[in-house]
Amino acid sequence: MLWAINGQRLDETTPPAQLLINQAGQDVLLTLLPRPTDQSGSGQNGAAGAASTAATETTDVVPFLPKSIRERAAPDEQETAPAKKIRLRSVMVRTIDSEEKAYYRAWVNRNRRQVHEATGGRVGYVHIPDMGASGYAEFHRSYLAEVDRDALIVDVRYNGGGHVSQLILEKLARRRLGYDFSRWGGLDPYPADSVAGPIVALTNEHAGSDGDIFCHSFKMMKLGLVIGKRTWGGVVGISPRHALVDGTVTTQPEFSFWFADVGWSIENYGAEPDIDVDIRPQDYRAGADPQLARAIAEVMAQLVAQPTVMPDLATRPSRALPKLPPRVKYDVG
């Protein structure tokens, strides 16, 4: 439990955020109280507490504990028991300038956990935040861990655009044709990193630019259903290469986009999903995600209709050399 920041104690009127103002990217000293099971130096953190003796101090902290914690003690203990000496632990940390990445990682992990639990681990989940270098890295970070499952949900909601959609589409377009069974290594899919079963894409009105292009191309290539809301419709691109002396970068529209089926009409309109699913304000309030729930339902229905096929290793033929016939003895006497 956090007790102080840079030596300033926390209480009912002093939250951690107040003591972290103007501390972004700085080294901050945190003072921690032991866990309830570690008051006597034993329990889960006993070894850790002993190893950090140089960074600890014994202090009478009971009078300074938050009121909510003090009230947990029995009334007679509050009145008669003397203040206990509690061992504090100090840790130096480097603060971050934004919680956005932490919230993003929690959101992705929550979605992936929901998909795994709802499908019994048969369906993987990948989110692509943009079509730039970070989004390309995030795609492979998740894709290579999820591709061994029977099916895949590709989430491009809130995609900020970029230029790598064609590389991701090439990877998703790999259809699993067979398996390579090695003597020692087991089954390897062919082509490598291909999805065994159906793929479903998720999108919304906050996906744009190369996110628009990805969603419409996903439909044109017939990779699977697109579920969600119509994308933003901002396809015309820029090239931020014109810098001014003060460091400002100027841009202007430079790249429009044409598709063989709809021409130039994705700009100012967006890519239409195959199944329109909205997230209402009451869904946000309840913490529900009907778009993800619909994607799970659709991909599981496709798995039932077209189960993935695995090789039967019991019927694998033997390629060993044929055995010679038994030796026959002839009587020449």
Structure description:
There is one protein chain. The protein has 333 residues and is an alpha/beta fold. The protein has two domains: 2-94, no CATH class; 100-309, 2-enoyl-CoA Hydratase, Chain A, domain 1 (Alpha-Beta Complex). It has ten helices and 14 strands. It has helices at residues 16-19, 46-51, 67-70, 75-80, 100-119, 133-146, 165-172, 210-220, 281-286, 290-305; strands at 2-5, 8-9, 27-32, 56-60, 85-94, 123-127, 151-155, 178-182, 186-190, 199-203, 224-228, 242-243, 249-250, 275-276. Helix 5 runs parallel beside helix 10. The chain is extended. The model is unreliable at 38-65 and 72-78 (pLDDT under 50).
The biggest beta sheet, please?
Answer: 5 strands, antiparallel
> How is the largest sheet built, in terms of strand order?
2-1-3-5-4
Helix content: 25-40%
Distance between the termini: 99 Å
CATH topology of the largest domain: 2-enoyl-CoA Hydratase, Chain A, domain 1
List the uncertain runs. 38-65, 72-78
Strand content: 15-25%
The CATH homologous superfamily of the largest domain is termed: 2-enoyl-CoA Hydratase, Chain A, domain 1
Mean pLDDT: 86
